[in-house]
Amino acid sequence: MTTTTATAEADRRTVSGSTPGAARGPRRTGRIRRIGLPYLLLLPALVLELLVHLVPMVIGILMSFKALTRFSIRDWGAAPWSGLDNYKVSVDINAPAGEALLHSFWVTCGFTVLSVGLCWLLGTAAAIFLQDTFRGRGLLRTLFLVPYALPVYTAVITWAFMFQHDNGLVNHVLHDQLGLTDKPSFWLIGDNSFIALLTVSVWKGWPFAFLVVMAGLQNIPKELYEAAALDGAGMWQQIRRITLPSLRPVNQVLVLVLFLWTFNDFNTPYVLFGKAAPEAADLISIHVYQTTFATWNFGTGSAMSVLLLLFLLVVTGLYLLLTSRRRKTADV
Fold first, then answer.
1. Into how many domains does the chain fold?
2. Per-residue b/e over 32-69, b at no fewer than 16 CB within 10 Å?
3. Residue 117 domain boundaries
4. Using CA of residue 172, residue 173, residue 176, residue 177, what is the dihedral sign?
5. Model pTM greater than 0.85?
6. Could you tell me the mean pLDDT of each successive run of 10 residues in the chain, 332 residues long?
7. Which of 156, 193, 265, 313 is the residue whose CA sits 20 to 30 A from 276?
8. Measured distance between the N- and C-terminal CA atoms of the chain, rounded to whole angstroms
9. What is the CATH number of the domain that holds 139?
């Protein structure tokens, strides 16, 4: 009896001693599965990113070093190697191609600054003033998001009809109804084309700023406004001292996204003006398109696209570096 009990106790110790080692294998397998699951879920997005963006980008960079014209585009891999000639032509401001690209660059910079600034200003103002509860607030929020919800082509085509010279709604209101102009204006050609392009860009872009800022305002505690009101702070002081500093992280991301979207905008000028944009509204995206497909100079067009990419990378890097330093300074 004693021998049987001792044997059972020894077997129990053996089993209990071997249990952690036996359980270690399944735990390690489960840990590997948990670590590998995020990568597995990201795999489709990575494959699409590779096929849609990275592969065409690499091909475009290779094309920028070749003398590609309408005669060699069929077999672009066998086109003659031109080295940096396409880049030299693009940056030579004394040559017609370089001068036109520089003009388009400055037009795009001015358009981007005005569009991003107005989108942020209108979106922030609307989001702040719609924070208070009042009758009809939900309806106004819905109406403000309509331009953002509409397809780009539908919205821009509608504005193109409204900017028509003879029967457009804009001239009908400004000239016929209000009498603000001496005669109907041309909005899709000439200098006014820049105003038309800016109007459409702001109209369809500010609801996105409104949506982002409105979401950021939900994270600001109401107690801060109540305490500021008890201290005698007015509405503008509360916006300056509480709202804007609290929205700084949101605005940093918002301004960067709006900048990239606006600077690279191709759909708006293309649908509004067609293949040939007026000189006053010659954005760099439509200019690269015209250089590439209107003159069939694919090598120079590819070089301009690479230069645009490098510019955006440099500006984005400097912006992120500057904002990160400000954030660290504020935290200290």
1. 1
2. eeeeeeeeeeeeeeeeeeeeeeeeeeeebeebbbbbbe
3. 103-331
4. positive
5. no
6. 49 49 55 71 85 84 84 75 88 88 94 96 92 83 87 91 90 88 89 94 94 90 85 84 89 94 92 88 92 85 91 93 76 56
7. 313
8. 75
9. 1.10.3720.10
